[in-house]
Amino acid sequence: MKVIKVKDYAEGSYKAFEIIKEVVVSNPNAVLGLATGSSPIGIYKNMIQDHQDNKTSYENVTTVNLDEYMGLEKDHPETYDSFMRRNLFDHINVKAENINLPCSIGDMEENVSKYESVLAKHKPDVQLLGVGSNGHIGFNEPGTSFTSRTHVVTLAEKTRLDNARFFNNLDEVPTHAITMGIQNILEAKKIILVAFGANKANAIYGLVKGEVNENLPASILQKHHDVTIIVDEEAGSKI
Ligand code: GLP
């Protein structure tokens, strides 16, 4: 596991962007595993800027996202589908048919098996991750089996509280989501995890220095052969 400590969000976002760009330039048919939350927004801004300035092309890239909330209207601004369009897809030349997010409307058993088929065909060359303050990755909350695959989850109270800032009030935050499982994440060839701010310091300590334990889902990354963790001074203050 490679740990890169950076000064701030801007530097960390740029470093993560450089790794992703390298993957896309060396393989124009790359599969990018993408994430939501506030952590990757700066990376996406760099990708958009670079696409405009240097014409880096995403024409033949396929994307797979980690997760999606359940219970929100299709065009709600906080679905991860809306988030990805607003923060990345609407601004680069990725083809609509090459974009994949788990579907959270309709029959969930069918949605889970459909997403498993997508992931069987498209294994990420690089998977981008944030981390929850409780150590979740994707929406794999503490206690999730390390052997889990795509599944429906009940969100932890801590996660709903953390994410309430994106909604009008806590009641509006979904209680359930569909997420790639830990096994799906581990199947990526390369993983980049970014974390910024003091409320991530405990999770980063557990992830880098703690025991590999299902109570801290991110700790399993210690077992993957190609992981880069990028943290600012606050998130990295305990390692
Ligand atoms: C959500 C997402 C995670 C993300 C986490 C941290 O729960 N499902 O993929 O890593 O939030 O979000 P943020 O980057 O906003 O701190």
Strand content: 15-25%
- What is the terminal-to-terminal distance? 13 Å
Q: Which CATH top level class fits? A: Alpha Beta
Total number of strands: 10
Query: How many structural domains are formed by the residues?
Result: 1
Query: How do the SSEs run, as a string of H and E?
Result: EHEHEEHEHEEHEHEHE
The appropriate CATH architecture is 3-Layer(aba) Sandwich
Task: Report on the architecture of this protein.
The protein is an alpha/beta fold. It has a single domain (2-118, 132-180, 204-212), classed as Rossmann fold (3-Layer(aba) Sandwich), CATH 3.40.50.1360. The protein contains seven helices and ten strands. The chain has helices at residues 9-26, 41-54, 80-87, 108-121, 157-163, 182-186, 201-209, and strands at residues 2-5, 31-34, 62-65, 67-69, 99-100, 126-129, 151-154, 176-179, 191-195, 227-231. The strands form two sheets. It has a seven-stranded parallel β-sheet, with helices on both faces. A three-stranded antiparallel β-sheet has the order 4-8-7, with no helix packed on it.
Summarize the structure.
This protein is α/β, with parallel strands linked by helices and 239 residues long. The chain is built from seven helices and ten strands. It has one domain (2-118, 132-180, 204-212): 3-Layer(aba) Sandwich (Rossmann fold).
Brief descriptors of the model:
239 residues; alpha/beta; Rossmann fold; three-stranded antiparallel β-sheet; binds 2-amino-2-deoxy-6-O-phosphono-alpha-D-glucopyranose
